[in-house]
Amino acid sequence: MSYEIEKTEAEWRAQLSPEEYHVLREAGTERPFTGEYTDSKTVGVYGCRACGAELFSSETKFDSHCGWPSYYAPLAGDRVQYIEDTSLGMRRVEVRCARCGGHLGHVFEGEGYGTPTDQRYCINSVSLTLKPAE
Fold it and tell me: What CATH class does 7-130 carry?
């Protein structure tokens, strides 16, 4: 796949902390209930920590109590990329930043949350940066 922002693995390692690199470039997962945005109520826009692309709004963030920040929709459908993930012996849908290919988390459907889309974008805090509204 090609992305608007492409860097070598050495360039990504120089830019990102070891944890950021593990999650964003190696599709890792931060431990549940440890991320800085899990319980955040700050109004603003969440962007990709690797490239700065604006991905999610605090307006779509909701309390799912799953251990990671949850959103019911991205800012726009073209901001994220969807990849089938069968790595744990089940079918999941991985969510990546469409601008740089950074791993963000997964999206789930049909879990019964009272959201407009019935989707839960389960996103690693370490994949995001929050730009508070002014």
Answer: mainly beta
